[in-house]
Fold each of these.
Amino acid sequence: MTSVIVNASKTYEIKIGTGLLHTIGTEVKKLERAQKICIVSESTVWPLYGETVSDSLEAEGFGVCTFLFPAGEESKNGKTFFDLVNFLAEHKLTRSDLIIALGGGVVGDLAGFAAASFLRGIRFIQVPTTLLAAVDSSVGGKTAIDLPAGKNLCGAFWQPSLVLCDTDVLHSLPSPIFRAGCAEVIKYGILYDPNLFSHLEENGLAFDLEAVIARCVELKRNVVMEDEFDTGARMKLNLGHTIGHGVEARSNFQLSHGEAVAIGIAIVCRASHCVDSDRILSLLEQFGLPITAAYPVEDIYAYTLSDKKRSGGIVKLIIPNAIGNCSIVPTKVSDLKSFIEAGL
């Protein structure tokens, strides 16, 4: 088991290893004070792991209630959010109680935003069940729901009290979902760590799961501790995301987040003539990720303009100069369309 400590506005531990779902009751007990726990999960995850988590909690004497919603990005909306906070109120959770987010990024985002909002903030625990959530969205305190105008436009920074990443659950992921999570893993190699990138090149999908997750979490931890509220260095974590979110929305979310990020990375690599473009594109393809978008540039551009990171007439793109060396490049909205076109 690997442990990573985050010292941000809240100090918390990220535990990565096998068999952790069975110990969740004991881990929650260490946090003290909680009597009631609401497990938030979705329709595909709960049948697999819900009973294990709830049994572990009940064995330690916690009162457990469960809020489930249909799987998919389309559930990360205002209606589901208000259904959840009303559920918390109906079950009389207090500020000393907590929420457990059992699932992937959609669950973590939704449950985390509810935790940040209900009673002006209660504690929550991230229990990621996808690779993407394990290496990225479960760490760092970004929570949000989608609006009709765009992805993640309503949210809050709210750090978890604990992250438990049981690597056993990742072995049961369908291949497309696991590969989609690899896009975020590759992102960390491009941004910060040539050795991580080389490890992925050499091992492909047989990479060292616990070690790679731990390394990605360490890298994100370092960035979050430097720039918790995403005003400077943390923006680099958006590599591939600004244009990727446009591609994802244009696909009506038929493309997964990881697939869209892979396309976004490929577009910025080609458009910026990164010296390591060939290696980056080759690795994305090695992991079975798409590197082209089958949509007109006008459509991708239109959807990209709804990105929450736009500031007035400027979008800050993350441009890879080489593996391990990326820059934040303020780009005029008027230049964005031609940039996307150059990368298609």
Note: The first helix runs from residue 24 to 31.
Amino acid sequence: MATNTRTAENASVRPQWLFCGTDTTGTDHVYNTVTDSVIAVAPDGHREHVADLSEASIDEWMAFVAQKRGWANRRLYEHFGDALADRVSSV
């Protein structure tokens, strides 16, 4: 009888790339879960910024963008309730 053994390689279900959203300037923010960094891509397709999150969390980055630029289309939230509240308020 075969057994399923979890390893570090197959235990993760989180994708390598997560789309965080688009800020009010039209810049897309994409989180790399492997390198723990965020890449900001300008509307013209050029890389605007790469943020190393080794000293911060993705939630702190999301809050930073919300404060500095605001989100036009936010896709990543710390809590489900925050996502739900944002969707309800935009209707």
Note: The longest strand covers residues 17-23.
Amino acid sequence: MHILIIGCGYVGKRFAEQALERDCQVSALTRSHQRAEELAAMGIQPVIGNVLDVESLQGLPKADLCLYAVGYDRSASDDKRDVYVTGLRNVLTEIKETIPQLIYISSTSVYGESSGAWVNEKTDPQPANESGEICLAAEQVVREFYPIEDESRNGTILRLSGIYGPGRLIGRKEQLQTEKPISGNPNGWLNLIHIDDILQALFRVADSSSESPLYLLSDEQPNRRIEFYSELAKQLGTPPPVMPDKPTNNLGKRCDSSLIRKELDLKLLRPTIQEGIPASIT
């Protein structure tokens, strides 16, 4: 299998590494010549280009699968909507006839729920902020190019809750160690998914004919924010979290990922934070 990765960051790079271990051919788009050298050293075929530069995308190779996992680089000057929506449209225009399968990484920020209610794939997405609106607009672009009714192409949208794993809790670890305040409603719900489970879900989607064009991926047990940071402090051996903000009625949402687990027989490796935190801090 030949896999093209657009967005070879925290998720994309790890997916590429595991794909290479499975003897897949992997190509990846990058804006940086230095990054291209790093990818080549890993065994990945780099393609120099930018999702906002249409001409640079003409070199994208034909492949069996495209993983689109572009995140927003806050250090760049590009507008987030341009990157997520216009950039996606540019890429899909180029690959729509040459790559039959697409997995698009989206976000549960498309849900604007604030009462603590459960959300799933059937929940009507009503974003509560601009970030969620942009993610939903990008999903609509995916459907333009990979329509559900087109049996010759398969486009799966994977809405991820908060990603954690090795290297993703460094800031929080420092806050706990130095007893710095952690902002946010302590009673609000926190939905997380460990990188190990993202990767196994991606391969499950890639290797099978997904029954659904849309999946929500989160672990099996949402936690109150105070519960998560208390558990993190316990496992790090630091003082308890300092969370000075008063509880509010904005409880957020609780994500139900039972559909993907059932349809793809996906058994999470880190179903709760009790398994996920140790696999993130070691």
Note: The mean pLDDT is 95.
Amino acid sequence: MNPSKNKNTIIKWLTFMMFMMFAMTTDAVGVIIPEVMRQFELSMTAAGMLHYAPMIAIAFSGILFGYWADKLGRKNTIALGLALFVINSYLFVLGDSFVFFLSLMVVSGMSIGIFKTGALALIGDISISTKEHTSTMNAVEGFFGIGAFVGPLIVGKLLQKGMDWKWLYLIAGTLSLVLMLMAIFIKYPKNTKKSTEIVNFKDTFKLMKNKYAIGFSLAAFFYVAVECAIYVWMPTLLKDYDGSLEIMLVYALPIFFILRAMGRFFGIWMISRFNWTVVMTISSFFILIFFSVSVILGAEAALILLPASGLFMSVIYPTINSKGISCFPKERHGSVAGIILFFTAGGAALGPLAMGLVSDMFGSDAFYGFILAAIFAAILFLGALFNWIFDPTKQQLKNLDALDYHSLK
């Protein structure tokens, strides 16, 4: 057995588990918010800070600390982020006030931003081509999808047994402790740094002006704004539905998460066999159609089409993330991952917020918010169509395949 290949397999599984673990906490917030509202007698706006605050923290952590993966190394950055996450998670069981929990959510977001950028940069170090990088990213996000399903399920089981939702963070913290110890003792690939430039925040800011960085970051922003429409506002859109498919109301959101996770594993096969620009264009086209028809035909169509859109959403974000990072030398992967993460988390916070504001302008009717989501989907599709027709990254990816990955083949 090839020792290097075996080591990379362990590192891949470590990365998979990290993404699954943090999805368990971030995507369980929707189940936690109603409990917090009852416990502290909060409004929806106030309780919603449990979602917006950590997303904003992840965004700024990515942009401020993403370069650490390039400067301090992947291992140190991952271990540092996980250590902060572990300590912060255990603190949840000690507090009993909304301000305390909100503060911990912010720190949790910061720690996720740190170890996530380190993990994203690491994927390039263990990939033998930009194509394999994209396939691995789909697998990573597939495990994120599993965590997004498992987290709310754990919270639901805890509440059924009369236990506090805070125990989710104790579980996540313990899992993170194991992952941190693994990260410390595993030998990572050498970070092949060729540049003599000083890596710092100013360097990251300069990268934000790069056409590849800003292009893929904007794509991530609009994609996540569309995705969040499903798990933040779809339950509100469908809450008054009482038609023949009423039984589907309970399963709509789980179906979305399952299809999104399954699609990402299927995406590994698709990306390895088909042109990624074509896959992105077709997928974003179906998302636009599903959202548009849902708005035009109403709740009965939305009940079927919005959860089904998870299958077509599945491959988009991992591919955006991978190709955006792969357009840069490996020595800049941490910084670029931080920039894309900034826009990703920004879309997760601002997209649902904008939909809520538009809905409130028309009598708190979520239908109008989904018109805005359909516009986001249209922008995403037009961007993918432009990318397919002109393929502006083709030569850049080809060059970096030859320069940055040849030694691993």
Note: The radius of gyration is 21 Å.
